[in-house]
Amino acid sequence: MHEYNHLTMKELPNNDKPYEKLAKYGEVVLSDAELLAIILKTGTKNRTVVELAQNLLLMDKNDLGIVSLYNKSLTDLQKIKGIGFVKSVQIRAVMEISKRISRSKALEKVKINSPSSIAGVYMEEMRYLTKEYFKLVFLDTKNQIINDKTITIGSVNASIVNPRDVFIEALKNNAVNIIMLHNHPSGDPYPSNEDIQITKRIKECGQLIGIALIDHLIIGNGKYFSLKEKGVI
After folding, report:
1. Pairing of the two strands 177-183 and 133-139
2. Could you give the CA distance from residue 204 to residue 66 in angstroms, rounded to a whole number?
3. Helix axes 32-40, 49-57, angle to 10 degrees
4. Domain boundaries, the chain
């Protein structure tokens, strides 16, 4: 390992220059650490920017690599020596951009014809969330996704998941059908009694309004539970 005195990316030797490597060979040849180094730009007195990036990727005990950065707060990131406020904000921004691009691509002409198809769209977005997010997915007559919206953040219960709010949003989006989604931060997607009660309540209201609740999926860590598929609704 080389030792540098707070050098910028421009001053690094050629073999440690992700900028030049990307320009010459393309971004696909860069490691996760090298890609992250381009965002960070500078290292510290005793660490190159690539070494600093490697430290970030190794900060999680479960060794999840770049995926672990999705769940790191600004405070978490700043625990790494050399990561201050600006660098932590840059990292959080990049993580959010990657999520939005991934979701946008996933939504392109997606036809929902099974619980696995909806889980495939939202699994990566929701499996790592540390709070419960309740989301509505709006579908057209062909069961293609029109839009989606997060309705609540926090514990999902009948007092905060109001049918009125659900169907106001459905009508705003000209939805014919809707799907409810929420995550369990524990990683276990098995529904609680309250999950089941909320689902039945929304389904009954939808039947009166003429907007069908197709399913309610609970997202865990790499797995899901479909209340429709299991015969709950």
Report:
1. antiparallel
2. 43
3. 120
4. 9-103, 112-226
Q: Which two tokens stand for residue 218?
A: 């609970």
Q: What is the pLDDT of residues 52-74, one digit of tens each?
A: 998 888 887 666 678 788 878 89
Instruction: Determine the CATH number of domain 112-226.
Output: 3.40.140.10
Tell me the Ramachandran region of residue 154: left when phi exceeds 0, alpha when psi lies from -120 to 50, beta otherwise. left
Place of tokens 């939005």: 100
Instruction: Give the position of tokens 């900028």.
Output: 19
Tokens linked to 127: 């499996």
* 112 within 8 A of 118, measured Cβ to Cβ: yes
On whether the CB atoms of residues 173 and 147 are closer than 8 A, the answer is yes
Bridge partners, 133 (sequence order):
153
Segment 154-158 long-range contacts (CB within 8 Å, at least 24 positions apart): 156/132, 156/182, 156/194, 156/195, 156/198, 157/194, 157/198, 158/194, 158/197, 158/198, 158/201
Residue 77 carries which side chain, given as an amino acid letter?
L
pTM over 0.85: no
What pLDDT is recorded for position 64? 65
Element (H or E) spanning 185, and its range? none
The bridge status of strand 133-139 relative to strand 145-153 is: antiparallel
- The single-letter code of the amino acid at 123 is M
